[in-house]
Write a structure and sequence with these properties.
heterodimer, A: alpha/beta, B: two-stranded antiparallel ribbon, two-stranded antiparallel ribbon
Chain lengths: 436, 578
């Protein structure tokens, strides 16, 4: 498409790595040897699970984070600080609540030192283009989410960037609003009315990526890296119900649930063996509910993930979390984009509350090494109690502080549900005592 | 404006007293010693001032009130400028932060009226024989009562600017200077305005106290309401005191209606929230401004100035430059040098303090001062307990009745702003007439002005108490003692603590004027640290003033860290509703 535009490289990323310091001194690698080239006239999507480093890559391109190694060039110049000709749309909109719509849109031009008459003309043109006419003097808090993100778009477009960066721009919006905004944007793009050359968007929504992008880079986690590059050659406007579209979505689902070779110290996912496994917090209520849903009709123990995600109104990312939690606990099995209940899962679905708790506890001790460890320590100590710090330190040998927090939160909530141990928030300690 | 959005900055940052507190304490005490030392070296007696004498003619009161108000406004402008510079430095530079924040912590607990002694000496030496020096000293005293908590609030806001807005301003190429005016200042605005209001409330007390002050042989009397009252006390003129109180009432009402409310209503747009809230502050004055074209045009130059300042292309100092990420590890060598410098200065300050104080003071003086300190501590403790027993039930009763709360709340806030020291003589007359024990009966004066903080915070807490919880308590037949202990008291606890912290801090400060009182030739003294400092000031006994202030600093800081901070943390963690 847009064949009149010559194919120059807008962006060149060569073997970029990025690591962050973690609790125990060693660095945590979040991006490993990423290559990416963006030409004029294309929409490129970075698709991946949360924590796969795609947002970090976007921030490297935006000049907000610097790469640990490798080369990042925008329009032939090495990126040091936010480059010229790049503007960003934020997931959280990032509007200044004390500025009106017009003032928010003008802000970027003001920073560039553009005089007030031209500023006004360009800002009004951008507001007009994005469909915000009549809202110029409103404050962001008076607007709905969709309208706010339109302001975010207008603010980015008004500086006429060559490359528009979008960080999950629709994920904070409800389904209908997001869809309207996507179609509006694509319409403007194919009509050539957007004052930009290319778009790079981050998303974890598979359908969104297939709907909008010409090229999708699928990210794998841990460390974040490009696992696959998929070209989408369907003409715009694309139809979600088109069989080719569905096929593409299904194949990406399958690719994302497919497990790479087991890694000894996986930070995410279930393949990890030791205690250094990140546990994403999923409430035991949600797990029980999901098991019941899977066990009942129409799934009868076997569900296609895109279908399940659609009927439960969950994002791909959320359904992956749930599926992985069930797989970790051996209540279900994930493969090729499907989720199947195991025999234990079937049993769980038909048990009473107390029996469920027992089964859950059994699986926790057997399949979640860190919970098994906590229980062993508590059993061995004469006081039957242990400070949380003891386990936190151990976790932080393998993961960053935030992940350790998340993991501990999961441990506490699962442990409480299974009545394996008690947790005292004030003393920050685990114990075997239960108030009876 | 919702009270709960802002934590009392008086608590400081650190959880436990630490080495940085000590460093800050030594630096501040050292600075005081140096000022006094310099003053003594010039050896010139603080020359008598050529001031138009204050008279008790009520006709002069409007002019006096105006001058008092001007001092207040001048001090608040200084405080705001100081706040912007100090907070920006502390928030943007890690090394500056190491020193500036503990310093601020300690400065907050230095008794302001104790400061006055040094500032008078300092400014009179700066402008010998000129009224200007005395005026500056007075403005500086008010400044010291206002600036610290404003600075703290600004610093905390600047540290908590939302990440996405930070990234947005970076990615849209805002310069450090632009970012400060477009992002940091607006984001800090609600907290800053709230703290400015609290500062102004407190400031009236100190402006009144610092207009007429005696340091050694010098008596400084600046025309104003404070010196009017001082003269009335000297001449035992009770009606004059009545006039002064009346004038002050009118001044504070005018300040509230003409300045404060419009500012709060205007600042509502800076609240960082994603949805419009139902309860929007209003001001008839602001409405007038917004609706009247002539008046609105008055604000245009300000808007233009604001735009101009924020768009100035000022190259920010190195520390302000926002590197995309701290590149690698911060330099260890510079850190070490910086620490060495701090240690050296602190060591020097400690040596100067020792040298200065050891010539005149013996260890027994130190013990004596601590003994007086404990007496005042006991007073503060008992008074807060008494005020709690009275005002918590009253506040809850009022707060649970929305109509009543709406009417009482402004009154309580007004009483908190009213300088209680104007009313002191009324109490002193009673003590003198009925020959009451000064040690006991002077004490209530300490909390006269500050008890209202407890009341209005409790009212706010009770008003905010969720209706569903009240209904639940009602449907489970919770009544009497159980209702108080399990339902209401935990619900208002965080609010109460905020009020009590402010009240306790204010009482320490007030002790310097409350523990000594006079009516004509009758002088009353209650033994305590406040009286100790006040007497030393009057005698020009600087070593004892320094000692007294240092002891009060230590006690206040310890009390805050060991009592209030844990209570506040407990309230925030366990008892915070919604």
């Amino acid at each position: 498409m847009l064949d009149q535009v010559q194919r120059t490289n807008l962006l060149d990323i060569r073997s970029v790595c990025r690591s962050f310091p973690k609790g125990s001194g060693e660095d945590l690698l979040v991006l490993e040897k990423v290559d990416l080239t963006i030409h004029s006239g294309e929409i490129v999507g970075l698709l991946g699970r949360s924590g796969s480093g795609k947002s970090t890559l976007l921030r490297i391109i935006a000049g907000l984070v610097s790469p640990s190694s490798g080369e990042a060039k925008c329009r032939g110049e090495t990126i040091q600080g936010p480059p010229n000709g790049v503007a960003m749309v934020f997931q959280s909109f990032a509007l200044f609540p004390w500025l009106t719509v017009l003032q928010n849109v003008e802000l970027g031009l003001e920073a560039l030192g553009i005089d007030s008459a031209e500023r006004r003309t360009r800002a009004l043109a951008a507001i007009d283009l994005i469909g915000l006419d009549g809202f110029e003097s409103a404050y962001p808090k008076e607007l709905s989410g969709g309208m706010r993100q339109r302001v975010g778009f207008a603010r980015a477009l008004v500086v006429h960037p060559d490359l528009l960066l979008m960080d999950e721009p629709f994920s904070a919006l409800d389904v209908l609003t997001a869809e309207t905004l996507r179609t509006d944007l694509i319409d403007l793009w194919i009509e050539g009315r957007l004052p930009i050359k290319s778009v790079l968007m981050v998303t974890h929504n598979i359908e969104e990526a297939v709907l909008m992008c010409d090229r999708i880079l699928v990210f794998a986690s841990n460390p974040g890296r490009v696992a696959a590059e998929i070209k989408v050659e369907l003409p715009h406007p694309r139809n979600r119900l088109d069989p080719t579209f569905r096929q593409l979505v299904d194949s990406i689902y399958a690719r994302m649930t497919q497990r790479a070779e087991p890694r000894p110290l996986a930070i995410e996912g279930i393949q990890g063996t030791g205690v250094g496994m990140v546990l994403n917090h999923v409430s035991s209520n949600v797990l029980s509910g999901l098991i019941e849903t899977l066990a009942g009709p129409p799934y009868n123990g076997h569900a296609d993930l895109p279908v399940l995600a659609g009927s439960l109104q969950l994002e791909a990312d959320e359904i992956f979390h749930l599926g992985e939690a069930l797989q970790l606990l051996r209540f279900a099995q994930l493969s090729e984009g499907d989720l199947m209940l195991t025999e234990a899962g079937q049993r769980f679905a038909h048990l009473e509350t107390d029996a469920r708790k027992k089964l859950f506890a059994e699986h926790l001790i057997n399949y979640v090494p860190v919970i098994g460890l906590i229980r062993r320590v508590l059993d061995e100590r004469p006081s039957h109690s242990a400070p949380v710090a003891r386990f936190r330190n151990e976790l932080e040998d393998y993961m960053s502080e935030e992940y350790a927090d998340e993991t501990l939160k999961t441990i506490v909530s699962w442990g409480r549900y299974a009545e394996l141990f008690d947790y005292n928030e004030q003393a920050e300690s685990f114990s075997l005592e239960n108030p009876h | 404006m919702n009270l709960r959005e802002f934590s009392p900055p008086a608590l400081g940052q650190a959880l436990q007293p630490n080495i940085w507190d000590l460093v800050a304490l030594i630096l501040i005490t050292g600075a005081m010693v140096l000022i006094v030392y310099g003053g003594e070296q010039t050896a010139a007696p603080l020359s008598a001032l050529d001031v138009t004498p204050v008279t008790l003619d009520p006709a002069h009161l409007p002019a006096y009130a105006l001058r008092t108000t001007m001092r207040m406004l001048l001090a608040i402008v200084c405080s705001i400028i100081f706040t912007f510079i100090y907070a920006a430095l502390a928030a943007k530079s890690r090394r500056a932060e190491m020193v500036l924040i503990p310093l601020l912590d300690i400065l907050q607990s230095v008794p302001i009226l104790g400061f006055l002694t040094f500032t008078v000496v300092f400014f009179m030496n700066l402008f010998p024989g000129r009224v200007f020096g005395a005026e500056l000293a007075c403005v500086f005293a008010i400044f010291t009562s206002q600036a610290w908590n404003m600075t703290f609030s600004m610093y905390q806001s600047m540290r908590n600017v939302p990440k996405d807005l930070e990234e947005a301003s970076q990615s849209f190429h805002l310069s450090g200077w632009q970012r400060f005016w477009r992002l940091d200042v607006p984001f800090a605005m609600p907290g800053l305005i709230w703290n400015t209001m609290m500062s102004m409330s407190g400031g009236w007390f100190f402006v009144v106290a610092s207009e007429a002050i005696t340091v050694g042989k010098t008596t400084v009397t600046l025309p104003g309401i404070g010196s009017y009252v001082a003269l009335a006390i000297q001449q035992r003129n009770l009606p004059a005191i009545g006039y002064a109180i009346l004038t002050m009432l009118l001044v504070i009402i005018a300040y509230d209606q003409l300045l404060f409310r419009p500012v709060v209503a205007w600042a509502d747009k800076f609240r960082f929230e994603q949805t419009a809230s139902g309860n929007v502050p209003t001001s008839w004055m602001l409405d007038l401004f917004r609706r009247t074209r002539a008046l609105r045009s008055l604000s245009l130059p300000f808007e233009a100035l604001n735009k101009m300042i924020s768009n100035l292309h000022i190259v920010p100092p190195g520390a302000w430059k926002l590197a995309p990420e701290p590149q690698g590890q911060p330099s260890r060598i510079i850190d070490a040098l910086w620490l060495a410098l701090i240690v050296a200065i602190t060591g020097y300050a400690a040596w100067r303090i020792y040298e200065y104080l050891s010539t005149t003071l013996s260890p027994s003086d130190v013990f004596g001062a601590f003994g007086y300190g404990l007496l005042t501590l006991a007073r503060v403790f008992v008074l807060i307990a008494l005020a709690t027993m009275i005002w918590v039930p009253v506040g809850v009763w009022i707060g649970l009745r929305p109509k009543l709360a709406e009417r009482i709340q402004p009154l309580a806030q007004f009483l908190a702003a009213f300088p209680a020291n104007l009313a002191f003589p009324v109490f002193v007359v009673a003590i003198v007439r009925y020959r009451l024990n000064a040690d006991i009966w002077l004490s209530p004066l300490m909390i006269l002005g500050t008890q209202w903080y407890i009341l209005f915070n409790v009212i706010a807490g009770a008003s905010a108490f969720p209706t569903d919880l009240r209904e639940a308590a009602g449907s489970f037949h919770l009544k009497g003692w159980l209702w108080w202990v399990k339902v209401v008291l935990p619900g208002i606890f965080p609010y109460y603590i905020t009020g009590a912290i402010t009240a306790s801090g204010g009482s320490w400060n007030a002790s310097i004027v409350a523990e000594v009182a006079s009516w004509g030739n009758t002088h009353l003294t209650a033994s305590g640290l406040g009286a100790y400092i006040a007497t030393a000031t009057e005698n020009g006994d600087f070593p004892r003033v320094v000692l007294g202030i240092a002891v009060m600093c230590i006690l206040v800081t310890l009390f805050n860290r060991l009592v209030w901070r844990p209570l506040y943390a407990f309230g925030e963690r366990r008892l915070r509703l919604g």
